[in-house]
Amino acid sequence: ASGKEKWPRGDETVWKTNMRGVDADVGDITKSVVNHVQTSLARQAYNLDNLGAYQAAALSVRDNMLVNWNETQLHYTRKAPKRAYYLSLEFLMGRTLDNALLNLDLKSQYKDGINQLGFSLEDLLEEERDAALGNGGLGRLAACYLDSSASQDLPVWGYGLRYKYGIFQQLISPEGNQLEAPDPWLDNQNPWELPRIDVNYEVRFYGQSERLSEGHGRALWTGGQEVLAVAYDVMIPGCNTRNTNNLRLWESKPKRGFDLNSFNAGNYEGAVESSNSAAAITSVLYPNDHTTFGKELRLKQQYFWTAASLADIIRRFKNLGKSINEFPDYVAIQLNDTHPTLAIPELMRILIDEEDLDWNFAWQIVTNVFFFTNHTVLPEALEKWPVPLMEHILPRHMQIIYDIKAVSNTNTFAARIFLQAVEKKFPGDRERLARMSLIEEGFPKQVRMANLACIGSRRINGVAELHSKLVQTTILKDFVEFFGVSKFGNVTNGITPRRWLDQCNPELSKLISSTLKIDKSVWLKDLYKLKDLVKYAADKGFRAEWAAIKQRNKERLAHHIETTLGFTVNTNAMFDVQIKRLHEYKRQTLNILGVIHRYLELKALTPALRKKVNPKVVFFAGKAAPAFFKTIRLIVNVARVINADPETKDYLSLYFLPDYSVSLAEVLIPASDISQHISTAGTEASGTSNMKFCLNGGLLVGTVDGANIEIAEEVGEENVFFFGHLTPAVEDLRYQHMYHPVPVDEACPPLANVLNQISGGLFGDGGVYEPLVNTIRQGDYYLVTDDFDSYIRALAMVDEAYLDRDEWVKKSICTTANMGKFSSDRAIMDYAQEYWNLEPIPVGKD
Ligand code: B1N
Fold first, then answer.
1. Which of 53, 399, 537, 790 could form a cystine bridge with 723, CB 3.0-4.6 A?
2. pTM of the model as a whole
3. How far is the CA of 684 from the centre of ligand 1 (A)?
């Protein structure tokens, strides 16, 4: 049908002969880059630096992506398939240029072209700032899922916020304290975004909500503050496909330049204040990970983003000319954790107040559109909003939430009486009612976002097998008993092999393609193909090449550290890496205490025996929420002492690399021999860096937690170094700590010795570390004491295994070979099939 459509305007041949395709040869590429230097940047060869050349190259690549992007969007519009929308408050994209060149298969042409213009592509890639609009795993997962959606030809858009400042830049003071600086990532202009000034929506805050007719449930929400949401589009190119999806990020702006009423009344400051507060909404990403603060601005961010996204989704749906009851046949909305849960009452508001649907009908639509992913069972991370704050900022939504919850017998809307339905199923169980209520009693009352997300969604999933089970047996247990277990599922997280193997480890990627004799475009999109590498593990020559690549990746990391920090790293050592947000449950403390233990043991050896020890370099990186500053300080000061100790420094050294980012991960991960994923069992929902290390042939030291378990299932337990208590034991141990505490000196003498050395001042003023040391001596909620012996034994086994280098390399190969399951392509197809009911819509294939 598309071929016979009438051309919308002008002379079709003039249009069509002038429409460009993708530039695939070097001549076209240099022409386009020079053209951008000359026009977009208004510069010349005489005054062009690396930054300018990067920008011109990026704009040229962007032009190519736009060709595909336009074609994809037109194709989706014509085909009118069901679409999915991924609502995430965080998208941790990292850099774009290299990834785009690889996905478009234009890297070698650009390399040549950039060379001809007198620059090096490698240098230009380093000019790009990370787009760091996320805290950690949750935000990076969203970015991997966008890459996979496009690569799998799925009609998926992301929706998020265009923060002016991403996650803070981390600096480390000489004393070892974390300092935070703003991340002005947009200062150099961002060539990867397209401002869509014409795509904008008004979003209301505060004001009054007046119920119109009690029987029907409608209301009129007026007054308050109106803020404008303006769209910025980021193109998401798929790998080896023309499909190019969209990530739409909203920026907040005052509706008018400033508040005219105040301005007229001569209150210039008041006028500017209101314009400031509109812009403030998208000014900064909240750097909190696993903690909620109940801040008004955060709630405004959440509503601003969900309201703009829903308005946009509904407008696109309405263009199809379908009736609103078909909405769930054309739209699936994935809620990335509870952050976008306000979308549920917001869609109710639109359907009832604006579309004039009755309550039950609206609720039926809503509960068929939304899907909810939970990412943590830690109680402190479960979002709750004070009712008075919600009433103030979103009076209409608070009414709707109360209506969903309503128990009142006088209420006439049967299906919305959630608690009444619970009461009917479990008569007289008042505690259950209280647990399941959307409102937690107390001063103040609070809205429980996980409960709202759960009852308002069609299906709910966790992010690894163990985690999904824990979701169903702990935080959402009552809901499983009420709705039945089929509403709950698991989608184990995945990572994109494009960025996390091909891009970050090009030599390994090449070796894999040449060994398997298949083009990378094939195995990168069917990662189970790596399985065939297992048979080459027996091949000595292959093992040598494999090991040589690891060695060069270590040297690449060492070079990076040398040039950025000035340290000389021993590349003959085993590289042991723990990189992730600092958090008590992730137990960086266990790692650093283990390092101190190793240091004390080394000191006790004779020089002759020391020479037999396998040298090791330990790397840490990660940003900390304010409560965990002390761990960084300890790591930095332990590093200061042991790196300077002439007796031991050849055998053990330690680095804390500041300002962990996606780009730094891309250098660290391919260089690791082992990586540590050592959360207390049952606390890390999945983890995704564990997958990245293993895909790059690094072995895993870990607890029986999150996705570690499934990685071991795939690669074989003989290739993983597991330790520590299992999830069922954790609760008992905590109970014991509480009622029958055993002092550390008795429970674990080697650990007590380590703690005493810290308190005694071996790493500077011991008093500084008292609070940290006391979390272990008293209470020890995360069971450092209980797992310490087992941890040290696991590390000893690592040392022993590393001595047999041939066997080690075999383990490394077999690990990579068996990581097929952890491609985010598998994960996203699982969402498409088991949750969204979405089909691939490939461009140019019909
Ligand atoms: O989400 C990742 C998992 O792999 C990790 O195990 C999990 O810890 C992480 C509040 C969070 N859970 N919860 C958050 C982030 C920001 C925030 O404001 C919570 N992050 C995770 C991907 O599934």
1. 790
2. 0.97
3. 9
